[in-house]
């Protein structure tokens, strides 16, 4: 996982078209009735506008001449993604697919503008991220290699496969997503730019090497941001509801505050956390229930029931004191929320390093789109898993199967590998399998997510999280400085007339 701050370079080298299930109408021509508006007899000034020729030069840098088709790749991705993601709500946003974008006011901000301007600015931003990095790559003599072109062609072949599934040519399928004229060659040129820009990004981001002293110093100055703490916590509730008067609500808040103060005093006098709590709430200590055997069992909690262990940094206002360099065991803080509830929090263990490790994992993704049904995708996953587990070298066997079977273009060219994965980075089911406490190197399995069935291979463990996060902070800071310098130094000159005529 790589973080980007100023420059939001995408991790994929080609825009995904597999998820675009909505057939869009980029030219604004009559498509009949739709959920997003009704075609009327209104005359729109831009209905007959001449679209910019795809091979005309729309932008130039010192070393690049960018045709309209390449820029359109970025414009149409912004447009198509928005339509696909918000199709059912387009009328709410005020976007009508039957009306030229130039002739529709964008109502999403106080600034005046059109929907065309909305998508143009976002298209330009995405384009410039890649174009400026690609410009630096050219200046420094970088170029695409055989592996880069393999990634590009694999992605184009994947688009062709999807088009075949719909009995369409490559150009017919891309017309639904990118508009008319986006041939394979034009798409290839666009993805060559993104791959070169991404390649330079990787050099810029991953290039610096930091010493252990720098990483330790970052941890020391992080004020617990990359630490874990243990603490006790109890909530003293302000007992009122919406039917109570303001005076009653204030009285309930004052009562909660008084109870919290008493509990703090009891803790300072040496009582355990549970003892202090039940001194405040003696009735709760007496509560009991009958178990399945008919025995009466007390509901009274022990200290462990109030204990939170290994907690990551969250709210500064509520928990910040726990993570400070001067935090001490036994320290107490009371936090009051907006409803007047009081949270008594006592430090049990001062900040310590998060030694959980990142992981490296391989997967082969099989989805129902490629296999017609979930059942067929799962059957194929079982077949591959069995083949891997029976192999003399399961890892080598796994890697050999990735290119032929995986639907994940992001890991297809590197044996399905994702490195330095931190907890919470992957989707829930994938994450839970990877970070199972019992996970061992060489484990294999099948995991189902919304993306399909994943044949898994656990590669191994990486850095401790405190170390990884501190190094990432250093890397981000250095990258941001360099990226900002690049953005200020690379000049892109646009043909404004063509820029205004990408689509109607």
What do you see in this structure?
The protein has 17 helices and 13 strands. It folds into 3 domains: 1-207, no CATH class; 227-353, Chitinase A, domain 3 (Roll), CATH 3.10.50; 357-464, Chitinase A, domain 3 (Roll), CATH 3.10.50.40. It has a 4-stranded antiparallel β-sheet with strand order 6-3-8-7. It has a 4-stranded antiparallel β-sheet with strand order 10-9-12-11. The chain has helices spanning 68-85, 90-93, 115-139, 146-165, 170-178, 184-206, 212-220, 246-268, 273-280, 282-286, 316-319, 368-371, 374-390, 394-405, 428-434, 465-489, 496-499, and strands spanning 57-60, 65-67, 227-236, 288-290, 296-298, 307-312, 332-336, 342-353, 357-366, 417-421, 444-449, 452-464, 493-494. Helices cover 43% and strands 16% of the residues. The model is unreliable at 1-40 (pLDDT under 50). The protein has 504 residues and is α+β, with helices and mostly antiparallel strands. The longest helix has 25 residues, at 115-139.
Blueprint of the fold:
Blueprint: E1 57-60, E2 65-67, H1 68-85, H2 90-93, H3 115-139, H4 146-165, H5 170-178, H6 184-206, H7 212-220, E3 227-236, H8 246-268, H9 273-280, H10 282-286, E4 288-290, E5 296-298, E6 307-312, H11 316-319, E7 332-336, E8 342-353, E9 357-366, H12 368-371, H13 374-390, H14 394-405, E10 417-421, H15 428-434, E11 444-449, E12 452-464, H16 465-489, E13 493-494, H17 496-499
Antiparallel strand pairs: 1-2, 1-13, 3-6, 3-8, 4-5, 7-8, 9-10, 9-12, 11-12
């Amino acid at each position: 996982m790589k973080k980007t701050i100023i420059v939001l370079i995408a991790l994929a080298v080609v825009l995904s078209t597999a998820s675009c299930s909505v057939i869009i109408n980029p030219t604004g021509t009559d498509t009949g009735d739709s959920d997003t508006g009704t075609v009327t007899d209104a005359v729109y000034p831009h209905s007959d506008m001449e679209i910019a020729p795809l091979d005309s030069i729309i932008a130039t840098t010192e070393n690049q001449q960018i045709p309209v088709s390449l820029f359109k790749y970025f414009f149409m991705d912004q447009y198509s993604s928005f339509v696909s993601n918000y199709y059912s709500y387009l009328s709410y946003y005020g976007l009508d697919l039957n009306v030229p974008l130039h002739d529709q006011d964008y109502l999403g901000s106080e600034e005046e503008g059109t929907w065309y301007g909305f998508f143009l600015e976002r298209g330009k931003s995405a384009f410039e991220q890649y174009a400026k990095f690609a410009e630096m790559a050219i200046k420094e003599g970088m170029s695409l290699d055989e592996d880069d072109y393999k990634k590009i062609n694999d992605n184009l072949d994947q688009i062709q496969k999807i088009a075949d599934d719909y009995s369409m040519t490559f150009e017919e399928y891309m017309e639904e997503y990118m508009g008319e004229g986006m041939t394979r060659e034009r798409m290839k040129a666009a993805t060559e730019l993104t791959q070169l820009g991404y390649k330079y990004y990787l050099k810029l981001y991953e290039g610096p090497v930091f010493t252990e002293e720098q990483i330790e110093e970052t941890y020391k100055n992080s004020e617990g941001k990359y630490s874990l703490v243990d603490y006790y916590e109890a909530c003293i509730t302000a007992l009122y509801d919406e039917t109570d008067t303001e005076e009653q609500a204030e009285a309930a808040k004052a009562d909660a505050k008084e109870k919290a103060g008493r509990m703090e005093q009891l803790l300072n006098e040496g009582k355990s956390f549970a003892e202090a709590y039940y001194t405040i709430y003696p009735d709760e200590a007496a509560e009991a229930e009958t178990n399945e055997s008919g025995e009466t069992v007390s509901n009274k909690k022990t200290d462990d029931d109030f204990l939170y262990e290994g907690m990551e940094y969250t709210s500064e206002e509520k928990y910040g004191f726990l993570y400070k360099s001067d935090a001490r065991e036994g320290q107490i803080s009371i936090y009051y929320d907006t409803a007047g509830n009081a949270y008594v929090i006592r430090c049990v263990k001062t900040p310590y390093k998060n030694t959980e490790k990142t992981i490296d994992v391989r997967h082969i993704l099989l989805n129902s789109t490629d296999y017609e049904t979930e059942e067929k995708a799962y059957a194929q996953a079982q077949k591959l898993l069995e083949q891997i587990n029976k192999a003399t070298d399961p890892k080598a066997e796994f890697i050999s199967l990735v290119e032929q079977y995986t639907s994940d273009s992001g890991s297809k060219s590197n044996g399905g590998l994702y490195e330095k994965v931190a907890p919470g980075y992957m989707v829930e089911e994938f994450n839970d399998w990877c970070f199972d406490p019992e996970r061992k190197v060489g484990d294999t399995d099948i995991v189902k997510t919304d993306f399909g069935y994943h044949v898994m291979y656990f590669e191994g463990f990486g850095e401790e999280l405190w170390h990884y996060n501190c190094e990432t902070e250093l890397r981000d800071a250095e990258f941001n400085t360099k990226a900002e310098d690049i953005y200020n130094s690379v000049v892109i000159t646009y043909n404004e007339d063509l820029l205004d005529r990408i689509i109607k």
